[in-house]
Amino acid sequence: MNNWQSRKASIRPHQLPFLRQIADEMEFPSISDAVDYVINAYKEHRLSSPVALTPTHIEQASPAVNLDDAFGSLDLED
Q1: Which of 53, 59, 65 is nearest to 17 (CA)?
Q2: Which of 14, 34, 38, 44 is deepest in the core (most CB within 10 A)?
């Protein structure tokens, strides 16, 4: 089942440190602002580059994150 009809999406835990870094650097008050920024930056990239990024490109470009240290004392349980 997909969620294209919903406004909600899940962010995978390993992406949170990167989104937090973007929010801190850009002085965004929320994770929603960081996600919006990333989506808009990708749109701009697609307009300026004849080759779209594929999931393989994205995975190869992502640095490894030690999840034991990445979340500190955050409670991420639902």
Answers
A1: 65
A2: 34
- Provide long-range contacts, Cβ within 8 A and 24+ apart, for 23-26: none
Q: In the structure encoding, which two tokens stand for residue 39, read together?
A: 């989506």
Residues 6+ apart with CB under 8 A from 11: 19, 31, 35
Cα end-to-end distance, the chain, whole Å: 20
| pLDDT at site 22 | 94
DSSP string, 9-60: ----GGGHHHHHHHHHHHT-SSHHHHHHHHHHHHHHHHHH-SS---HHHHHH
Q: Which residues contact 29 (CB under 8 A, 6 or more apart)?
A: 23
- Model confidence pLDDT, tens digit, residues 28-68: 999 999 999 999 999 998 888 766 666 765 555 555 555 55
